[in-house]
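Lab notebook page, bench 4
Experiment: in silico fold of construct C2
Operator: M.H.
Input chain length: 494 residues
Purpose: comparison with the prior construct
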Amino acid sequence: MYRNLLKQRYRLVFGYIGNLFVFFPLVMMLPVLYCIWYPSVFVDSLPFLEAAVICFAFGILFKLIMKVKPGAPITVQEGAIIVFFAWVFGIIFSALPFIFGGYLNFTQAIFESTSGLTTTGLTMVNVLAIPDTYLLWRSILQFLGGAGFAIIMMSAILGPGGLGLYKAEGRMDNLVPNIKSSTRTIAVIYTSYAVAGILMYRIAGMNWFDAINHSLTALATGGFSTRLGSIGEFNSLPVEIVTIVLMLLGATGFGIHYTLWRRNFRAFWKNGEPKLMFLIIAFFTPLIMAGTMKYFYESIGTQFRHALFQSVSALTGTGFSTVDFIPWNQMGLYLLTILMIFGGDLDSTSGGLKQYRLFALWKLLWMEIKMYFLPKNALLKEEIWKGETKRYLNHSLVKEILLVFSLYFITYAVGVGITASYGYSLAFSAFEFASALSTVGLSVGITLPSSPVGLIWTETIGMFLGRLEFLVVIYAITKLLRDGKVMLAKRRND
């Protein structure tokens, strides 16, 4: 009986996965549209057609075999499995054009697509030696991954019963009661900012191709660039200002954006994340100026310009740079590593520990200090806002924060150890793996196509875990193992 129920539920799960990858080829065809304006690159775009066909065949096969009824509700646990496999298969299919085009091997291609969809920005490609369609594909991957490609793609498939998938991707910003409407609202906000970013970059002096790519990746806090020297190659203050604005917009939670769109300034002001993020930037920027930038630039203005940009890039998890980090002293690398670990807002496109959790810990500390001076039987509640929703600090929230923090730092310690085992300094290893785990993309030159295969896979796993925030992966794998054990046990008994 239970075994039959499990079979039905897994038909539903994999049916939804099939539905997702029936639509995903449409995204894979977007770089081919570039050929309309530049027909000469059509031959270079054929790998996208091949990959799209394979992806569609995979999706339609699952869809037909599983025979899923549209709108069937799923649980959070089932949503975790869908999200897990959606990301795994999405990474694999996204890597195929790089493999079919002969630009990257399997390991490098998986790394590149993982870096794209997780909005990390570490790269295996030489942007000067790869066609424009592939550069555009990298940017599209980051834009899609920033919003959570699973929920955005599935919003057209799932009805109101899709809450399980929405929550499984770590979303708290249910903007409106209907999940489908929430995802569409996110898509509208996200796309509007991207279009505005393209226009601002164009006004700042970029050509259309660079403007499109950098707007998509800056807003996604991804960091993929069309230039070898990243944003620094433009050597333009207006470009850097536009980039900073987009990075901050991307690192701000969608729920907070929604309060502004609704002109609910009262709720916006009660959200602690934006205030904490600006305080951290204001604190770290002069530290980086005094600790590092003064050794490279005499002008205070130039020191501030580069220190501010790097601080925002690291904290928001974007990974754009205007300087070379290899000559930096350990003080500067240490400060940027801390910023990368902190991360941006919860429910944003950035990674790291997230400002919501840091702000909650600060509120918890402040509550404990106040409780110390109150009578023993006194009751004290500390509220914490997320968008338009008020929440109180409780054991559940504290437990979730401590769990995420513990998993993050355990993974970080293991990753740094593995990186250092390949002969890199501890400072460089800590910086590079923090960049991977917090999905940032800043690099001190460790991540290269010639890097050891073990190191590349270590960073790949780090990016994947950092983007899905550990718990989704743990929940999905645990449920798969548990249900698999039940199925095997029933089969043996039969």
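Observations: The beta strands are 383-386, 389-392. The longest helix spans residues 2-28.
Next step: discuss at group meeting.
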